[in-house]
Amino acid sequence: MPSLVPVTSVRLGEHLPLLELLPSDSPVSWVRGGDGLVGWGTYAKTTVRGADRFDQARKWWHKQLETFSVSNAVQTSGTGPILFTSFSFDPNEESVLLIPKIIVGMRNGNSWITWIGNGAQPELLEKKENVKSNHFSWGEGSISSTDWQGRVADAIKEISDSSLEKVVLARDLTITATDEIDPREILRRLSAEYPSTWTFAVDGLVGATPELLLRLSRGMVTSRVLAGTISKTGDDEKDLALAASLARSSKDLEEHEYAVRSVGDALEPFCASTNVPESPFVLHLANVMHLATDVTGALIESKRDIDSFSILEKLHPSAAVCGTPTNAAAQVIAKIEGMSRGRYAGPVGWIDARGDGELGLALRCGQITKNVIRIFAGCGIVSGSNPEKELLESNAKFAPMRSALE
Questions:
Q1: Locate the Chorismate-utilising enzyme C-terminal domain: which residues (predicted)?
Q2: Is 211 among the residues known to form the active site?
């Protein structure tokens, strides 16, 4: 019988600037406000696809866990062996599962390190090397702005002609750089500009999402729903007035209600009790404001087999990235959107050996392939939508990645 591979987690204690530790070799990240996890070096990696991809992912992760001998002196969520995941939006596209060799975590001022293998505890060095200046050429995406507005009009017609209540349409832009794109500089800029978002990187997909799809920790589940958006002006007084108008907008409240309902319905079978606030709050980001609702629940204690994979299977795709009803919206997306989303709008984050984890929706992000990055934005279309306004909203949602590159 082959010997087990050691996995060791120990406390570091000190406050660490996580994103400054990342080398250029396969960096992975899930960081918010300085807390979270970063990792590098690839111990194991695979891809899954198909309607059962969450179950395939669970089986692969459990098979890996059987080969480990874990020594965990920290014993908190996010310690021990960690799986970073980046699932596709469409089940027929490729999802990525990755186990880093080295992981460093921070929570509430306490830090730890986990490493795989027989070697001594890795030394941590802040990666302050200069990043080469890069020049970017901005191109069109899979669909021109004019054509995309036409597809929004088509979606509005689909809604008026059927039982469809909402459909999310996405668009992309392709940017070419003079040199290979370094994800670390993008992560640092996103983290500095958007500290309340989760800054992520998995296998070339980098971004900063404001939307937490799932946090599972010791029997408690949380999901932050965002739907309904308005751009900020930078003038505090005007923005307060805009926030108030967003909170009263029937179009945005309708879109938000669909998204909250889909998450509440998905969590209900797993939970002994759920808390769904009656009305949303307005989440202020650097470039936009969103209607937001935090849905929480306590898992049914007798159901011992509930883990992040089983909940993800029911949560994705939510109304926030697909529409309502989900199946009908997915069919309309396949019919009129006209592009591959890849891992945009899919679940991204991490899962530990207990099945606990934190995963967001891969929004405000881009997929890097050497010196090319493809960035994405999506808008929820309802009966009261206007194609020109939706185009403006999508441009506002490109802003985080635009500024991180520029």
A1: 146-397
A2: yes
